[in-house]
Amino acid sequence: MKRLSLISVFAFVATMFALADSPLTSTDFARTLNPSGDKQNNPEILKAFDQHGWGEEVMAILCSPSVPVEQRLCLVNYMGWNFNGQTHYPDLVAYYVRKNGIESKQQVFNGMYGEQMVVFAYVKAMDDYFDVRRAERLAREAKKRSPRSRAASVIHALILSQIALDNDWAEVYNVWRSVLNDKSLNQDFSDQSIQYIMEYIGLYEKYTE
Fold it and tell me: Which of 11, 33, 48, 73 has the highest Cβ tally under 10 A?
């Protein structure tokens, strides 16, 4: 009986450690591009970051409409986050403005389609996961512009889960219900990537009961 109790305690502690992380920092869906995790097997899109770090090579990929949106989001996921924050978002805005001959940064999103805008939203969220309000607004607008984009819905839900983490653990999971159940969304974000995300988000389902 004592042994069973200890096992239960260890299981509880392990779960609490897992939940101590967050939706933005604990959802490794870049594995879709390389399930083995061996960097030597990384596809070219991830090797761009391995070889050059954050810079124009990576920003060119993130802004390229010829690269599927899921792959671009996987690249952002792969680059990860920094506890002390990052400045990838302003760099990406400046790059996009320069490359597209836009007059000012305030006009960067004028006419931008949702599948591109959600990449900016995810970069913004990963820059500072302690404050994702601006990122949430960008992702919400991306959904509005491309309402059938599964990628836009997924990233918006991921950011909403991050916000819910500080208030209602049941909501961390609940915000995913519409994404998981909406069969009208297109397949610009794969079931496999969602499965990797739900490995973490699914831990919160029990709080909805």
Answer: 73
Residue 93 has pLDDT above 80, yes or no: yes
The closest alpha carbon to 144, from 133, 156, 134, belongs to: 156
pLDDT for the residue 42? 96
Q: 52 in a domain, yes or no? A: yes
Q: What is the pLDDT of residue 209?
A: 85
**Structural domain contains residue 1:** no
Neighbouring residues of 170: CB distance < 8 A, sequence distance ≥ 6: 204, 207, 208
Mention every residue, 6+ apart, whose C-beta is less than 8 A from residue 56. 95
Give mean pLDDT, residues 2-12.
Answer: 43
The residue segments making up the domain with residue 130 are 21-208
Q: At 22, is the secondary structure helix, strand, or coil?
A: coil
> What is the spatial distance between Cα 48 and Cα 52, in angstroms, rounded to a whole number?
6
